[in-house]
From TrEMBL:
<dbReference type="InterPro" id="IPR035472">
    <property type="entry name" value="RpiR-like_SIS"/>
</dbReference>
<feature type="domain" description="SIS">
    <location>
        <begin position="139"/>
        <end position="279"/>
    </location>
</feature>
<dbReference type="Pfam" id="PF01380">
    <property type="entry name" value="SIS"/>
</dbReference>
<dbReference type="InterPro" id="IPR036388">
    <property type="entry name" value="WH-like_DNA-bd_sf"/>
</dbReference>
<dbReference type="InterPro" id="IPR046348">
    <property type="entry name" value="SIS_dom_sf"/>
</dbReference>
<dbReference type="InterPro" id="IPR000281">
    <property type="entry name" value="HTH_RpiR"/>
</dbReference>
<keyword id="KW-0238">DNA-binding</keyword>
<dbReference type="Pfam" id="PF01418">
    <property type="entry name" value="HTH_6"/>
</dbReference>
<dbReference type="InterPro" id="IPR009057">
    <property type="entry name" value="Homeodomain-like_sf"/>
</dbReference>
<keyword id="KW-0805">Transcription regulation</keyword>
<dbReference type="InterPro" id="IPR047640">
    <property type="entry name" value="RpiR-like"/>
</dbReference>
<feature type="domain" description="HTH rpiR-type">
    <location>
        <begin position="13"/>
        <end position="89"/>
    </location>
</feature>
<protein>
    <submittedName>
        <fullName>MurR/RpiR family transcriptional regulator</fullName>
    </submittedName>
</protein>
<dbReference type="InterPro" id="IPR001347">
    <property type="entry name" value="SIS_dom"/>
</dbReference>
<keyword id="KW-0804">Transcription</keyword>
Length: 304
C-alpha cells in the first residue's frame, strides 16, 4: 500500500514549507499565489483576498482554489493559520527579518555567507519539522529487516545515495547504490519482496531514478522515495515517501540546496536502523574501525 501523507497530520510543518512542496502540482496562477504566501507569510496574513489576488495578478476564485489545493477550506482559514504561525515565531524569538532566499549579482560576500548559512540551517530545521515519524519508523523497520537495499540517485542525489550505502555497508547490511541506469535496472530486476529499493530525487521527476525505482517495485521490493515534492511523479510509484524541505536560490540549484536536507533524512533512517540492530551495528563498527586504524597518520608528540 502506497503511503505519502502530509506531515501536517502529525506535526509541526509550517504552511510555507507545505506550500513550497506542493508548488509544482499547482497551476501557474496558483503558483503565483503560493510564492507570495510562502515567501511573505506574515505579510500575507494581513492581506484581504482581494489584495492577495491583485498582488498575484489573478482572481479571487483562483485564491480560493489555491487554498483548497493545499488543504484549507478557504482563505479565512489560511489567514488564521498564517497569523498563528507568525505569532509563534515572534514568541520563539525568531528574527523579525530573515535573509532573503535569493542571492543577487551585487550582494557583498558577507551577505552571501549570511544567506547561505541561513538557507542551509533552515533546510535542516524545516526538513526535521515536517518529517512524518510514522512513515520514518516504517522505513527504518523495512531497511533493518531487508535482505538487501538498492539505492538509486543521479547527479547530486548520487552523492547522497553513495553516503547512505556506505553507512549501511559499514554496519554490516547488504546495500548497493547505482547511478548508471543500465546497472540500476539489472540490479532492480533481481529484487523481490524481501528487499528495499530507495529512490532519491530532489524534484521527484528524474527519469533514470524513476525507471529503476519502478522496476524494483514491479519485482515486489518495498519502495521508498526521498524527494522535496510530495506530489511528484516518483511518489506515485512509491510504497513509502519521505520528504525534504529545501529552498533554492539563483546560484544554488537542487544540486546544492537539497543535499543537506536529504542527508538529514538519510541520517535519521540510518540512526534508527542502527538502534534497531544495536548489537550487530556495534560489532560491525568496531571491526571496521580496527580495519582502517593503521591507515591513519599518528599525531607526532611534541617535546613536552
Amino acid at each position: 500500500m502506497k503511503v505519502s501523507r502530509q506531515s501536517a497530520e502529525g506535526g509541526a510543518t509550517s504552511t510555507a514549507v507545505k506550500i513550497r512542496g506542493l508548488l509544482p502540482s499547482l497551476s501557474p496562477a496558483e503558483q503565483r499565489v503560493g510564492r507570495i504566501v510562502a515567501d511573505e507569510s506574515a505579510t500575507a496574513a494581513q492581506l484581504t483576498i482581494t489584495e492577495l489576488s491583485k498582488r498575484a495578478e489573478t482572481s479571487e476564485t483562483t485564491v480560493i482554489r489555491f487554498c483548497r489545493a493545499i488543504g484549507f477550506s478557504g482563505y479565512p482559514e489560511l489567514r488564521l493559520r498564517l497569523a498563528a504561525e507568525a505569532g509563534r515565531a515572534q514568541d520563539d524569538g525568531a528574527p523579525g527579518e530573515a535573509p532573503g532566499s535569493d542571492i543577487s549579482q551585487t550582494d557583498d560576500l558577507a551577505t552571501v555567507v549570511k544567506t547561505i548559512a541561513f538557507a542551509d540551517a533552515r533546510a535542516v530545521e524545516d526538513t526535521a519539522a515536517q518529517l512524518d515519524l510514522e512513515i520514518l519508523q516504517r522505513v527504518i523497520d523495512a531497511v533493518a529487516a531487508a535482505r538487501r537495499v538498492d539505492i538509486y540517485g543521479v547527479g547530486a542525489s548520487a552523492f547522497v545515495a553513495r553516503d547512505f550505502q556506505m553507512k549501511l555497508h559499514r554496519v554490516g547490511l547488504v546495500a548497493y547504490t547505482w547511478s548508471d541506469l543500465h546497472l540500476a535496472l539489472t540490479s532492480a530486476a533481481l529484487l523481490d519482496e524481501r528487499d528495499v529499493a530507495i529512490g532519491i530525487s530532489h524534484t521527484g521527476t528524474t527519469v533514470d531514478t524513476i525507471e529503476a525505482f519502478g522496476e524494483a517495485g514491479r519485482r515486489g521490493a518495498t519502495t521508498v522515495a526521498l524527494t522535496n515534492f510530495p506530489k511528484s511523479p516518483i511518489t506515485r510509484i512509491a510504497d513509502l515517501t519521505l520528504t525534504t524541505a529545501a529552498r533554492e536560490t539563483t546560484f544554488r540549484s537542487g544540486a546544492m540546496a537539497s543535499r543537506l536536507a536529504q542527508l538529514t533524512v538519510v541520517d535519521c533512517v540510518f540512526v534508527g536502523v542502527a538502534q534497531k540492530t544495536y548489537a550487530q551495528t556495534k560489532a560491525a563498527v568496531e571491526k571496521t574501525r580496527e580495519a582502517v586504524r593503521s591507515r591513519r597518520v599518528r599525531p607526532e608528540r611534541g617535546p613536552w
